[in-house]
Specification:
single chain; alpha+beta; Small Protein B, Chain: A; seven-stranded antiparallel β-sheet; 36% helix
Length: 162
């Protein structure tokens, strides 16, 4: 096996924000660790996490994940935390400083794209994003439809002539 293949197999998506690409243009992507409690880790591994309404902010030199829902672990006890609490994201100081400046710009925000495992640790993929306008969203849907129809025509053409 090649190194790339082993790295791909080591990553497993635990939660994905599917709507993010519909509403935002991604400018840059970052990999961040996330500070979790034990029951939260088990809950994420069971697939009880939702990134749909989540976003990240930079406060006092730290990056925080806000409004990200992680359901309560069924076998947990008093250790279960609030499912919508803010969670600290772990990034390098240079990345935090860069994000601090970039998020001050008008229209830019930090969006969580997915939770995944890497070497048995849960990571969060963040994107520095700019919101799409209604026109951009419609244009994206139009382009996707045209691409799908073109691919279908090519398949039918090949099928007829082979």
């Amino acid at each position: 096996m090649t190194a790339a293949r082993t790295q791909e197999s080591a990553q497993k998506n635990l939660a994905v924000n599917r709507q993010a690409s519909h509403f935002y243009h991604f400018l840059e992507k970052y990999e961040a660790g996330i500070e979790l409690t034990g029951p939260e880790v088990k809950s994420i591994r069971e697939g009880k996490a939702s990134l749909k309404d989540g976003y990240a902010v930079v406060r006092k030199g730290e990056v925080w994940l806000v409004d990200c829902h992680i359901g309560a672990y069924a076998a947990g006890s008093y250790m279960n935390k609030d499912s919508l609490r803010d969670r600290r994201l772990l990034l390098h100081r240079q990345e935090i400083n860069k994000l601090m400046g970039r998020t001050q710009e008008k229209g830019l925000t930090l969006i969580p794209l997915r939770f995944y495992t890497r070497n048995n640790l849960i990571k969060c993929e963040l994107a520095l994003a700019k919101g799409k306008t209604v026109f951009d969203r419609r244009e994206t849907l139009r382009r996707r439809t045209i691409d799908r129809e073109t691919a279908q025509e090519v398949r039918e053409h090949r099928r007829r002539h082979s």
